Amino acid sequence: MNRAGFLLARTLRRxxxxxxxxxxxxxxxxxxxxxxxxxxxxxxxxxxxRHGARIDAADLVIRINRAPMPGAQSHGTRTDWLGLxxxxxxxxxxxxxxxxxxxxxxxxxxxxxQTARGPGFYLHPLPDIAALGAxxxxxxxxxxxxxxxxxxxxxxxxxxxxxxxxASLSLSGRRAAADVPHDFGAEAAWVQELLARDPRLVWxx
Length: 205
Description:
Keywords: Glycoprotein, Glycosyltransferase, Membrane, Transferase, Transmembrane, Transmembrane helix
Helix content: 25-40%
Number of domains: 1
Radius of gyration: 16 Å
Order of helices and strands: HHHEHEHEHEHEHHEHE
Oligomer: single chain
Number of helices: 10
CATH architecture: Alpha-Beta Complex
Largest sheet: 7 strands, parallel
Protein name: Glycosyltransferase family 29 (Sialyltransferase)
Strand content: 5-15%
InterPro entries: Glyco_trans_29 (IPR001675), GT29-like_sf (IPR038578)
Main location: membrane
Low-confidence stretches: none
Shape: globular
Strand order of the largest sheet: 5-4-3-2-1-6-7
Subcellular location: Endomembrane system; Membrane
CATH class: Alpha Beta
């Protein structure tokens, strides 16, 4: 598909041509097999911690959206994969240098050509987003979708950093919980349930 075809498919919300640009989900999950994965959220509280070395020691580091990184001591430095649901300015793309971008948003009109043609590009399926939203009773955050996705893989462990479900707000903006369409209480309870039944999941606070 060329750029004009991509723009047409995006504008007309033609899912099949856009999905054809994506690696299959099975291939993405296979890439996580046996690996220790760090999933780094954007909670402001992470800036007060010293988890950077642990994050960088993971086999794979996944960050979220524009992934502000105030310091290496708290956040580490690596970004192997980036779970994205918003536009990514060129400066942030260059700063993060992700090896793979996972487009997690159902809003396909925000997806840009550079991202869609990037190496290993992955488009998260709309039915998966809808299913998690139904379970949570609200549109899922990018972080929740990434947790759900990663735990489908035969990975060794998934450690969450920078997740406090908006208790300390987000480094990526000034909005309060009431200003976004997510149910952070439901997501926190869901993660607690996952922790109780899946020993691979670790919540580092």
